[in-house]
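Project channel, design review

CF: Before we commit to the Streptomyces luteolus constructs, I'd like one complete example in the thread so the newer folks can see what an input/output pair looks like. Taking 2-hydroxy-3-oxopropionate reductase.
RD: sounds good, go ahead.
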Amino acid sequence: MSNLPKIAWIGLGIMGSPMSENLIKAGYDVTGFTLEQDKLDRLTAAGGTAAKSIAEAVKDADVVVTMVPASPQVEAIAYGPDGILENAKSGALIIDMSSITPQTSVDLAKNAKEKGIRVIDAPVSGGEAGAIEAVLSIMVGGEQADFDTAKPILDTLGKTIVLCGPHGSGQTVKAANQLIVAVNIQACAEAVVFLEKSGVDLKAALDVLNGGLAGSTVLTRKKDNFLNRDFKPGFRIDLHHKDMGIVTDAARNVGASLPVGGVVAQLVASLRAQGDGGLDHSALLRAVERLSGQQVA
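CF: and here is what came back for 2-hydroxy-3-oxopropionate reductase:
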């Protein structure tokens, strides 16, 4: 029998599926629940166990990992008679890896404590590729002792794992991450359109730019998306729209001005309004093309 903690995994989407599979490969006993049967089938094919409900998934778990789209979904799976808090055992640790508002994380930790359940917020950055390759950056909020308990699990999922402060701090840092990523993608998209309209060899230009100060992880990861106009979602515009709402609201609450971030948030919103919400966030290129008078298929 393994001495590793038993894990319940709630949410098996673009990120959650490969992340849970990496835990299975590392020898963890993973029981998962999600709403899509094909995702449950994928989990069992990888060696995990599919549960029929949240309650069934979490009842014997030492650690419950959640990876769902936004605050409403976290609240839906955490609370109520069928939720995590009513069905997980006392002493269990919830690792919430969703990207949600800092206040939602603070409230969850407070409510869980009343049930004898521990919580850390641990959102991630790195996209689908980072999840598959287990090289995610994981920003954590919570107590040191709970972070220490979670660290071996997080080490299986990511490469850079940092405790950033008390409950909600991980979400605050993730909001800042999404601000930087969105502005970076927007700058790259503008450069691509500028270069193409100037008649420059785009691939050559992006290669040399990425070797200098303008280089970034964003450009490395998204260069082929720009070159091939391949916007298969690794991280959807819909989700980045949600995240930009989180960061602009949180910044307003603490009195921080985000002049460039505010503009990019509106550009993300406009792209979503034009029907591109299901595309990868590198599709910000499509918005720049439209603004530049180009026909977009």
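RD: helpful, thanks. Residues 69 and 195 are 35 Å apart (CA to CA).
CF: The beta strands are 7-10, 30-33, 49-50, 63-66, 93-96, 118-121, 124-125, 136-141, 158-165.
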